[in-house]
Amino acid sequence: MALRLGTTLHGSKYSFRLVEKLGDKTVFNPVFKAEVLPGVQSILPRDRWAVVKSAVLENQTQVDCLVKEYKYYKKPSIESSRNFRKLCDIINDPIGWTAQKPFCLAFEWMDTTYAHVKLFRRVELFGNAAQNGWYISSKAKYWPETDSAQPTWTEDTTLAEVPFGEHMKDPVLVADIVKVCLADLKPANVLISSVDGLSKVKIGDLGLAGPEGGNPRWVQPEAFRAPEVWTGVSCYHKADVWSIAAMMLQRFDPNILGNADNIDKTRIHPMAWCLAKIILLFDPSCNSIPPPDVDKTLQAYFKLAQNLTTTQAKEDLDELLLQIPSFEVWADLAMDAGIPKVVLDVIRLLAVPNPMNRPSALQALQSPEYKALQKAAAAYVIYNSLLRSGIR
């Protein structure tokens, strides 16, 4: 039977009443907010709510991903990590799964996701409507000036730091140690509670995780997919590192990566459009991203991506079709718009097109750039606490 609102499911510890359907266009499994009720254990946990995740039995991909996620959560290194969302309970058995007794996982409740946290004072990004390209222009709205005794950082600083901050080092390092690629790092899978206080941030959804080098082609979300994954290499740890940088970058400029603004998805393949953006941003000389070595189709898409970096718009032959500046130009404009240098330095550190030269998570965490980011974020937390208490 399909799971419906109002249904009560019985787990090994508690019961769960489904009260709200969750998810967005990037979530394909049935996911629900559930009220935790007494079950085998009569003493309820502190949290009243949980997230119940299942799969459509007829959809083998969903089933496989849910079972794989369950197996990964049974690994001690992941089960004990404070930065993966906790698995609270199991509903029914994955072996002998039936429509009447669906296998479900019950996870701890988190308030929101990185994708849904709104910036308090967001930099206005002006797109070139004729070219459908996005960039931070000289028209960008500056944040209000503050007196010199106060940091000029806003809520944006801390939230931009979230994907790579202290909260993220545990899951990325754990994955590297056990040679697992998370493969699905995206804003919707970065879960946050207590946004207005000392935020608790965790990673959710391990359904696409897998052994390094053992993932299907193009498993990462398009906007956060590493260049080497686009060209046919399977996911390794450093592909996750790229995704972290991409999340930070997209926070300030939503269409600077990815395929959402592709002007003609029927004619321009996502690989070509997305790689062209990466080349313009990080590899203008077109010599850092290793090209596909065997697959003729991928080689053709790669060549098209290179051509797109020099293709001119039909409306104005003086303008490029893709209005994407180099990262250094973008970073200068971003700093003028109020984005802190320490955030941009970390993006620059991580977003290296050639994975051979890209740092691992451990190397990045030991870098001067990350330590400067930590220091800046800590100063912001202190300032914000004083601000909330009325001390200026």
UniProtKB/TrEMBL annotation:
Against SUPFAM superfamilies, the record matches this protein to:
Protein kinase-like (PK-like) (SSF56112)
SMART domains recorded: S_TKc
InterPro entries (UniProt xref): Kinase-like_dom_sf, MAPK, Prot_kinase_dom
Q: Give start and end of each Protein kinase domain.
A: 16-370
Q: Which UniProt keywords apply?
A: ATP-binding, Kinase, Nucleotide-binding, Serine/threonine-protein kinase, Transferase
- Which molecular-function annotation in GO is an example for this chain? ATP binding
Task: State the name under which the record lists this protein.
Answer: Protein kinase domain-containing protein
